[in-house]
Amino acid sequence: MISRRRLTQAMTATAAAGAAGLTGAGQASALTDTAAAEARAARTPHGLGPVRHTRTDLLDIAYHDVGSADGTPVILLHGWPFSPVGSYTEVAPALARRGYRCYIPYLRGHGETRFRHQDTFRSGQQAALGTDLVAFMDALRVPRALFAGYDWGGRAGDVAAALWPERCTGLVSVNGYLIQNLAVTREPLAPSIESGYWYFFYFLTERGRKGLQRNREDLARVVWHRNSPQWHFTEAEFAQAARLWTNPDYVDVVIHSYRHRLAAAPGDPRYADLERRLLDQPRITVPTVTLDGQADGVNPATDGSGYAVHFSGPWTHHVVPDAGHNLPQEQPEAFTAAVLEADAMK
Fold it and tell me: Domain 4-22+31-344 is classified in which CATH homologous superfamily?
């Protein structure tokens, strides 16, 4: 169901003055977009604290944690090519003030997260991302948590919520149902959509691999501008994110992710059974809030009806004004409010 009133109420609880995030495009901000970004950059480095580490069978996962140790667990998941620090530097402290314990991991191939063994397949496939999330919870002895993310992180949350619903108390997923339907991956989409996915096809080629290896910052800058055309990020924000892309496994993981999703590369055999289950497009049964950015340059905003069938539990959808693809960084109040709403739907 779609309920703007409920999320507007949550927004009121999130920002004392009332945020512009979900109440309508006509509201004016007290600062221009650029001034707001500069104000964020001028604050203390970020509100996520030091980088911590935990180990799973395959990974040494870098992460941040924010909030009281006995707070309600929520795992905030970043996308590509974005930074968990940038995406959640405002969201996590806002949630911590409301009694949540936030865990913010770095995806495989990003930042200080490392593979523990040289012979591990550097996979970026969806089953790997979902499995990493559950393994991360196991390593930290977190039995259940709310998952919230976008892009790669949103997909990890969707996969884990669908395959292991007993571990998920609720879900916030930007751009809706993100589990890839590999059975139809060779079918074309509308040209207007395909054009936004230019880097999918670029990465199918060895030229694209070399381009990512040599020009990872320039390529990411193009993605930031095109996927979030109204987002006026600062050079400091971009430089912070760029540190993630020096990971020695970054290129292999990214290239495999996009080749696998287009059926152009085999997956890691360890995830074959999970990928077969994902071919059935499993429904997500946990309470869910889906969000679309009104200014998303790659996935146009919808009313959510196109993927409503995939959510069999409590579900609501919102379009967020002035938000692009990196929604939690561009409109942190709206993303925070969505977490509060998903938690209240239990």
Answer: Alpha/Beta hydrolase fold, catalytic domain (3.40.50.1820)
